[in-house]
Specification:
mainly alpha, about 75% helix
Length: about 260
C-alpha cells in the first residue's frame, strides 16, 4: 500500500480511537468517575463554567471534517498534510492517555501527557503554516481552522492542568493568595494569545481564548478579583483579535507572506 494512503488511514483510525476513548470516559464512566467530578475536587480559580466544555463538540466535529478532507485522493500528496499526519496520530495518543491518567487519578503524569499533546499541536500548527500564507478555502476550513480551535483550547487546558497539579501537590504558592495566582495565569494566557493574534492573525484561536476567559468570569462571579480580571482579559483578547485581523488583511503580520 502507498505510504501516503497508510498515513491517511492512520489519521482516521487515530481520530476514531480518541473519539471512542473520550466518549466512554463519561459514558461508562472510567474508574466510576466522570471527568467533571474529578475536576470538582480541585479548589482552584483557573476553572471554567461547565457549559464552556461544550467546545469539545465543536473541536471534534472540526477534526472529523479534517480527517475526511485529508483522506481524499486529491490531498494524498499535500506537503503540509504529509508533514503533520503522524504527529496528529501522536496527539490522539496523548489525548487518550491523558483521559486514562485523569480518570485513574494519576495526576502528575497527566501534565506529561498534556505537554506532549500541546507540543504536537504546536508542531502541527507550524506545519500547516497558519497565518503564514494563503491556501485553498477547503484547506483553511478543514485543516487550519480545526487545529486553531484545538490548539487554542489546549493552551487553556495546559494552564489549568498545571494549576490543578500544583494544588494536588500542596504547593503553597509562595504565600501569594490563590486569587492573585489566578490573575497571573489569566495574564499569562492573554500574553500567549496576544502573540498568536499579532503574529498569525488567527481569529479561530482567539475566539477560543475569549470563550474560555468568559467561562472563567462566569464560574467565579462571586470572586470579584478573578471575575473582573477574566472579563478584562477577554476584552483584551477581543481587541487583539481585531488588531491581528486588520494586520493580516494588510499583510503586516510578523510571519505573513503572500
Amino acid at each position: 500500500m502507498n505510504k501516503d494512503v497508510i498515513r491517511q488511514v492512520v489519521v482516521v483510525l487515530a481520530l476514531v480511537v480518541v473519539l471512542v476513548v473520550n466518549g466512554l470516559a463519561n459514558a461508562l464512566p472510567l474508574n466510576g468517575l466522570s471527568t467533571g467530578e474529578i475536576s470538582d475536587r480541585f479548589d482552584i480559580y483557573f476553572v471554567l463554567a461547565g457549559y464552556v466544555f461544550s467546545i469539545w463538540g465543536v473541536i471534534y466535529l472540526a477534526l472529523i471534517g479534517f480527517a475526511v478532507y485529508q483522506a481524499l485522493p486529491s490531498q494524498r500528496e499535500n506537503p503540509r498534510l504529509r508533514a503533520m499526519g503522524y504527529p496528529f496520530a501522536l496527539s490522539c495518543l496523548a489525548n487518550s492517555v491523558w483521559i486514562f491518567l485523569w480518570h485513574y487519578l494519576v495526576f502528575p503524569l497527566t501534565l506529561v501527557a498534556m505537554l506532549v499533546l500541546l507540543g504536537t499541536l504546536i508542531f502541527i500548527y507550524l506545519r500547516l503554516e497558519i497565518g503564514c500564507g494563503r491556501v485553498s478555502a477547503a484547506e483553511t476550513w478543514l485543516a487550519r481552522v480545526p487545529f486553531s480551535l484545538y490548539l487554542g483550547w489546549i493552551t487553556v487546558a495546559t494552564i489549568a492542568n498545571v494549576t490543578q497539579l500544583l494544588y494536588y501537590l500542596g504547593w503553597g504558592g509562595w504565600g501569594i493568595a490563590p486569587e492573585v495566582w489566578a490573575v497571573i495565569m489569566l495574564v499569562v494566557g492573554s500574553a500567549v494569545a496576544g502573540l498568536v493574534a499579532l503574529t498569525r492573525g488567527d481569529v479561530a484561536y482567539m475566539l477560543v481564548i475569549v470563550w474560555a476567559f468568559v467561562g472563567i468570569a462566569v464560574k467565579h462571579a462571586g470572586t470579584p478579583l478573578v471575575s473582573a480580571t477574566a472579563w478584562a482579559m477577554a476584552g483584551v483578547a477581543v481587541v487583539m483579535l481585531a488588531a491581528g485581523f486588520v494586520l493580516a488583511r494588510r499583510g503586516r503580520l510578523l510571519f505573513a507572506r503572500p
